[in-house]
Amino acid sequence: MLKVVIADDDAFMRRVLKDVLAENSGVDVIGEATDGREMVQLVEELEPEAVFLDIDMPGRNGLEAAREIFGINPKIFIVFATGYSCYAHQAFEVYAFDYLVKPFDKERVRRTINQIKFFTRERARAELSKRATSLLKGVNPKLKVFSNEKSIFVNIADIILVTRCERKTMIYVVGDSVIQTNEPLQSLEERLERYGFFRCHKGFIINPDMVLEFFPWGNKTYLVKLANTKETALMTLEHAKEFQTQYCI
User: Fold this and answer.
1) Helix 11-22 to helix 106-137 angle, to the nearest 10 degrees?
2) What pTM did the predictor assign?
3) Integer Cα distance of 102 and 13 in angstroms
4) Each residue's pLDDT tens digit in the chain (249 positions)?
5) Where do the domains of the chain lie, and which CATH numbers do they carry?
6) If residue 32 lies in a helix (H) or strand (E), which one and from where to where?
7) Within the chain, where are the H helices?
8) Cβ atoms of 53 and 70 closer than 8 Å
């Protein structure tokens, strides 16, 4: 059951949103707040998996509340449900999962709920994968790649990111080392996936253990800073949501 808390200073709109959410199976609205401050308190007390909140509320507004909520639980799904479309950019800067505009379209809400359920399942799968990876790390697995007619063996734990540049695949490794190969990203993704590597963009695979921070960079894209390298990666908005779901606690 997906536990949800909603916040809106308008009692009628809370009822409307609650009724729309209730039409989706597996959703339980466990709390209602009338402003941002009360919403933060409910998140701390009830530990919901998702919050639906308005932006224009008295006292602490939805954006301010969202920042505090994300600090409490980075894995929570934050969905803005508001009458103003002009706040969308600010909403995604606080890592909002989705942005719904009043009046609510039932099909649109259903898609959002289904996405949250999907990522919740993926989170569980990723946690199992991470446990398996931690066991595999004990045997120091290596990645074998061909470069300039040589076989090169790379410690998987030392790989920072993989990307494409001028028809070559570049593997950046701890120690400022770069390995070039003709192997496509898709092939490397399939080989590295079992070790927890993450395809964050069509042109990048990253080691989640190396991620230091990411922040908005253009339209629906984030720039990712990584440990042990000056190189950066790009991450799409959808993959940023997925990353937080899978790897943040």
Assistant:
1) 60
2) 0.56
3) 9
4) 889 999 999 999 999 999 999 888 889 999 999 999 999 999 999 999 999 998 888 888 888 888 888 888 888 899 988 876 666 667 667 678 888 888 888 898 899 999 898 888 877 777 666 665 555 555 678 888 888 878 899 999 899 999 998 888 999 999 888 999 988 898 899 889 888 899 999 999 999 999 999 999 888 899 999 999 999 999 999 898 888 887 876
5) 2-129 (3.40.50.2300), 140-247 (2.40.50.1020)
6) strand 27-33
7) 11-22, 36-46, 62-72, 88-93, 106-137, 185-192, 237-247
8) no
Query: Using the 8-state DSSP alphabet, how is residue 108 labeled?
Result: H
Q: What tokens appear for 116 in the block?
A: 């949250």
Q: How many CB atoms lie within 10 A of CB 88?
A: 15
